[in-house]
Amino acid sequence: MRASLALVMALGATALAKPDLAKPTPLPLPGGEGGIGFDDLMFSPTLHRVLAPAGRTGKLDLIDPKTQKIEVVSGFSTDADKFGGGHGEGTTSADTGGGFVFASDRSRTEVAVVDPKTSKITATVKLAGGPDYVRWIEPVHEVWVTEPGKKQIERFTFAKGKLAHAGAIDVAGGPESLVVDAKRGRAYTHTWEDATVAIDLAKHAEVARWKNGCKASRGIALDEARGLLFVGCDEGKAVSLDVTHDGKQVGSATTGKGVDIIAYNPTLAHLYVPGGDSATLTIIGVAAGQLDVLGTVAVAADSHCVAVDDLAHAYVCDPKHGSLLVVTDPYPATK
Asked: In this predicted structure, what is the pLDDT of residue 8?
């Protein structure tokens, strides 16, 4: 009787146990053998590709989530034969919109227009300052580029395959990160310290500034349907804000330290937070804004950026080895 009860209890515990995270699978990028200064990574639903701007290699890599096949767009700056640390060279941020890809070139202080059908750069435009994030703003059909050194977001109209300067939005204390909330006609960015800024897309102006619970704000992600904005804090924390209630903080969770780029899968309601200092990726379930750590997987030193596709894969940057670490999320969707 006791043995049977023990067996039942053991089986019950097994059923309740959380699934294990498999060891990440390396995905080497072309020309990355000497290391790559990664920064921004993202998934494009329209192209169904992960966009991996590959820094000093002079390439923008487009990854097919189904096959892991890599398509290469060349023509960006190739300023170094070997990764020397940081992410100040070549292309480091990209986004898609209007049937094109827009990608930064930090070395040239430019944004390039790429035709994904030909994988060729078709146009470039000079920037007022060093670029950080590049984002397509669908509601106003503009490209916005954050320029932290100028404390501004530079705006460009896009027509007939060309970008044209349209103005700038001042962001005191920032801008760090950028995400678009088309449903509410806003974009969100951070200061480098403890605040998140809401920008009206039509007015091109700041309309709100909220304390976000960070000591040092970094990454940003959005659950547009639920009005939840996620903040990655460099000190090792993730925070959720309710943008429908004046940026009210509704959840937080402890993560590895050295947080920078974060990502969110709205289908699973999972937030992915890499810690570059701790060499970990924390997967967090989001329920009604509350944040619950589901699991943590070891990645690589300085793995400070991540993107997620629609097939439950997370792509974590590994700068030293010039590759992405592909993590398959084993956890069920959070409800």
From this structure: 40
Task: Write out the CATH class of domain 36-170.
Answer: mainly beta
According to CATH, the superfamily of the domain at 171-335 is YVTN repeat-like/Quinoprotein amine dehydrogenase (2.130.10.10)
Enumerate the domain spans of the chain: 36-170, 171-335
**Could you tell me which residues come within 8 angstroms of residue 268 by beta carbon, excluding any fewer than 6 positions away?**
312, 329, 331, 332, 333, 334
Q: What is the DSSP letter of 332?
A: P
Rounded Cα distance between 106 and 84, Å, is 15
> Contact, 197 vs 218, CB < 8 A?
no
- pLDDT, tens digit (0-9, with 9 covering 90-100), for 67-91: 999 999 999 999 766 666 666 689 9
Say whether pTM exceeds 0.90. yes
Closest CA to 142 of 77, 82, 187, 109: 187
pLDDT under 70 in the chain at which residues? 1-18, 80-88
- Cα 52 from Cα 42, distance rounded (Å): 7
Question: Residue 201 in contact with residue 166, Cβ under 8 Å?
Answer: no
